Amino acid sequence: MAPAAPLAVLALVALVAPGLGVAPGCDYPAHRWCSSRDVAAACQVQGRCPTLPSPAAAPVELSLYYESLCPACREFLVLKLFPTWLLLPEEMLSITLVPYGNAQEKNVSGKLDFECQHGPEECLGNMMEACLMHEAKNFSTYFAVIFCLESGTSVTKNLEACLQLYAPEVDSGRIAACVQGDTGVALMHHNAQATEALDPPHQYVPWITINGKHTDELQAQAEASLLGLVCHLYQGEKPEVCGSSKAPKVPSGCRR
């Protein structure tokens, strides 16, 4: 004699598949209908399966367009962006860093050259950080080094020390070769194009986009309470560190 089916499964069968019929495309026995989200969808019983795992939520995507020596950029990166990234699970926040800002790209005798808001030292800092990203590749590695550079006394003179602290496996010689060669110029050209393609066009830095969008409200909330903003926007299960406060608008930083 076959064992009796659990009452919950019998109830599910009665509700979803009256008689002997089942949902088209459902080739699974009733006891497996709630075993996974795909099976529940095939059998059209998602609403009857309270124990299904939640689907993975997309991370909040933040892009920071900045300059290496802009005080407001450094403040946001060091005091807001890096701590928020440390506090949140990796799957919650995806960050893209674009060092260029209010720089200008010029063609001088067939070669690309760059002028930066805070002078040649800033152009060097922008290119160093772009080359660092290119050579390190892993976000966790290069973001820690950029945090170290931006929080220190000199963005351009502390690379060796910051690499020793946070990424000793990264070859500083390769970064120097990138900065001094065609690769660094190509990386800055890419950052120039990405910055110039912003819609709406950037008016100041730091310029922040959230999920590909920039508005005055998003910028203000990101600058005042980035953790609260990311927690509010994330659609998945939120960690305990998340709060629900919304940020007031605040002034922005280095304008043209």
TrEMBL record:
GO terms for molecular function: oxidoreductase activity, acting on a sulfur group of donors, disulfide as acceptor. GO terms for cellular component: extracellular region; lysosome. Lysosomal thiol reductase that can reduce protein disulfide bonds. May facilitate the complete unfolding of proteins destined for lysosomal degradation. Plays an important role in antigen processing. Facilitates the generation of MHC class II-restricted epitodes from disulfide bond-containing antigen by the endocytic reduction of disulfide bonds. Also facilitates MHC class I-restricted recognition of exogenous antigens containing disulfide bonds by CD8+ T-cells or crosspresentation. PANTHER family: GAMMA-INTERFERON INDUCIBLE LYSOSOMAL THIOL REDUCTASE GILT, GAMMA-INTERFERON-INDUCIBLE LYSOSOMAL THIOL REDUCTASE. GO terms for biological process: immune system process. It holds the Pfam family GILT. It comes from Sylvia atricapilla. Keywords: Disulfide bond, Glycoprotein, Immunity, Lysosome, Oxidoreductase, Redox-active center, Secreted, Signal. InterPro entries: Interferon-induced_GILT (IPR004911). Residues 1-21 form the signal peptide. Transmembrane segments: none annotated. Its EC number is 1.8.-.-. It comes from the Eukaryota. Dimer; disulfide-linked. Its main location: secreted. It is found in: Secreted; Lysosome. Belongs to the GILT family. This is Gamma-interferon-inducible lysosomal thiol reductase.
